[in-house]
Amino acid sequence: MNLTQRQQYLALAAAAAVALLVADRFVITPLTRAWKERSERIVQLRARVNEGRLLLDREPGLRARWQSMLTNLLPAEPSQAEARLLGAIERWAAVSQVTVTSVRPQWRLGAGDWTTLECRVDAAGSLAALTRLLYELERDPLAVKVDVLELTARDDTGSQLAMGLQVSALVSNTVQRTNPR
What we know:
The radius of gyration is 34 Å and the shape is elongated. By secondary structure, the protein is an alpha+beta fold. The protein folds into two domains: 1-72; 78-170, Alpha-Beta Plaits (2-Layer Sandwich), CATH 3.30.70.60. It has four helices and four strands. A four-stranded antiparallel β-sheet has the order 1-2-4-3. The protein is 54% helix and 25% strand.
């Protein structure tokens, strides 16, 4: 079978096209996909390394803040914890000049070694006095957070308000405190 020169070129071109198709399908495309995935992974890893460096730079401050939090947890002994929280509430009320009408503490078991002491506080006073109470609560180093806050007017003008407040204080049963209050 004698092929003409033109047929030989066409056969060579067809073989080259098939070879390029096979090379593209099994070599070039997988390599470019792997290259893109690797590039994306490198970008992600660089971002994580930068986050780690920033975290390491902030380590002394974070450790000091954590130690402060551990120091200001309520004692694990229930009566001491309640006494400390009730004393703080009395202190906040005295500074803010509000009238505390009722305080109802209640214990909640948490996950693991953490327990919370929830306390429902009902207070009355002017808007300025109640905001001062909230300011004193948030400013205090005690590990307390406000869960629920309800305000209602006690008179027609709104000059006297009643506030229902639910706060949670954190108690750890296993953490050793170096400087308890």
